[in-house]
Amino acid sequence: MKKITMTRRIVQVFCLILLVYGGYIFKEWKQSPETEQSLFPALKAPAGSISITKLEKGSILWPSGATPVIENYPPSLVCRFNPKGGMFKACILHFFSENLTWQTQLKYLLPYITLFILLCFLLGRMWCGWVCPIGTTGDFLTFLRRKMNIPVKRFPQNFRINLSFTGYGLMAIALTISTIIGMPNFARYQCYWFLPYCQICPARLICPLFGLIKPNWKDFSTSITTTFTILAWIVLGLFIAAFYFGRRVWCHMCPVGLINSWFNKGAGVELHKKSIKCIKCGYCADACPMGLTKMYEMDKDGIYNQNSCIMCLRCVEVCPRKGCLSVKFFGKGIKIKDFFRGKNAKKIS
Amino acid sequence: MKKLLLFLIPILYGLAYGGEQIQIEFEYPSITGDFYVAGTVFFPPAAAPDLKKILVMDKDTREEIPSKIVVQDNWPDGSVLSAEIVFPANSQKKGKYIIFYGDDVERKKSFVEAAVLPTVSFIVPGAGTTVENMDVSVGQINVRVDRSTNIRYWWYILPVFFLILLTVLRTLRTIRMQKL
């Protein structure tokens, strides 16, 4: 395995563990009798702790049954990574949806928005390539495909652009619904429509599995929950298919990734190309999991950051020409020596 | 037989709910549906030996309400001095709630999740809630009144604006570079 990829895998696994179990590490030990003794006290949701609202009807996030869905502590829902259940979320869409519904005053959200923008400004969309647990899961599916010698399916650029529009559409619908149900006249719909995107997000069904928790994968108690259940299955199917057959296709329509992508071209992490050294081998375009080709096509020196780039640095890694593609942080070169470069770099340099 | 029953019923009742009780009060919010009620309660020494000896109950139906109880401080004997109590309520089913505590009380319904629904605070009648009720017999208390608490939050506008501006400028620079 190439060195950057290996480092990325290690970071991904570390972040996955942190996001899944981190809540337990930082959890106050005196929170409940079950958690007083051990650092990792209970990987399963405590019995009888779910469905606290006892709604007869409700969304699949608040089921009438006894299936665990919303526990603030990971490993249930990494999107809500926060040991104290506060406002800061690992998922920015969750953060905005929830606070639009609750009509939280902007001033209380500003510290969290600042932190989010700061991270995006510094690292761009690195979250997607290095941290996102869904991305990590998808990479594992891609790994399985490779092991089974199934060829990768390449999607045309128009298809990827359409996926982005779909993602923006979903995001707009989710935020609009969240805003509407936050209005007093529509508050009675909150139990059905709270966090609408989360109800169909594949993370809701996948991430609890890391913590050995069964997600609420079906709820046919009302027509709305039935619709959301079926939509969640369809989205999960698309998610698995997208990663299994086409690497990071899903990331083109992930709303969180789309929000992060606004910062990519201005991010502190810069991908530079020295076109004079380029031999147009096409390795970089071939290796890009997002199917981007800018780094290959660009015929002049400069930054080739693109909105869809997940900063996995595969292009830098596979480039056989030393110094052709490089990664810099605010213009300062990060020395990726032979240790971090692929074997090809030694052959053709 | 009737006399025996009349004798036994209070005793059984006492055995079932033999603990001390605290009445709590809160205002039902304007939202429709479920919400959480939260607040801090102080207990006398040795009254509530541990978390499980405290429970929240509907005053009318005598039904236990699932609650999340976090001990904040303990008395030197280990019993609970103060605890933060959170429990769910519903604005359509307005009820009165009481907190039971004591050796004879055994909490059965609990949850550990943090609140994901709107939360209102309850108060314990008679407890000091404002500084007007505070008596300071000895020593000195310094109070600093900050009339500009909003600035604690709104100053974040500056870094947000600065970061967005930088991002836009750098994005424009990158786009310029990439133009063929």
Task: Describe the protein's architecture and organization.
The complex is a heterodimer of chains A (349) and B (180). With 349 residues, chain A is mainly alpha-helical. Helix content of chain A is 48%, strand content 4%. Chain A contains 15 helices and 4 strands. In chain A, a hairpin with a 2-residue loop joins strand 3 (325-329) and strand 4. Chain B is α+β, with helices and mostly antiparallel strands and 180 residues long. Chain B has 3 helices and 8 strands, in the order αββββββββαα. Chain B has helices spanning 2-16, 151-154, 157-178; strands at 20-23, 34-42, 54-58, 64-65, 68-74, 80-90, 97-101, 119-121. Chain B is elongated. Chain B starts with a helix and ends with a helix. At the A-B interface, helix 3 and strand 2 of A face strand 5 and helix 3 of B.
Task: Compile the SSE list and pairings.
The complex is a heterodimer of chains A (349) and B (180).
Chain A: H1 3-26, H2 92-102, H3 106-123, H4 126-131, H5 133-147, H6 157-182, H7 190-193, H8 196-200, H9 202-210, H10 223-246, H11 255-261, E1 269-273, H12 283-287, H13 294-297, E2 302-303, H14 314-318, E3 325-329, E4 332-333, H15 343-347
Antiparallel strand pairs in A: 1-2, 1-3, 3-4
Helix pairs in contact in A: 2-6, 5-10
Chain B: H1 2-16, E1 20-23, E2 34-42, E3 54-58, E4 64-65, E5 68-74, E6 80-90, E7 97-101, E8 119-121, H2 151-154, H3 157-178
Parallel strand pairs in B: 2-8
Antiparallel strand pairs in B: 1-7, 2-6, 3-4, 3-7, 5-6
Q: In a nutshell, what does this entry contain?
A:
The complex is a heterodimer of chains A (349) and B (180). Chain A has 15 helices and 4 strands.
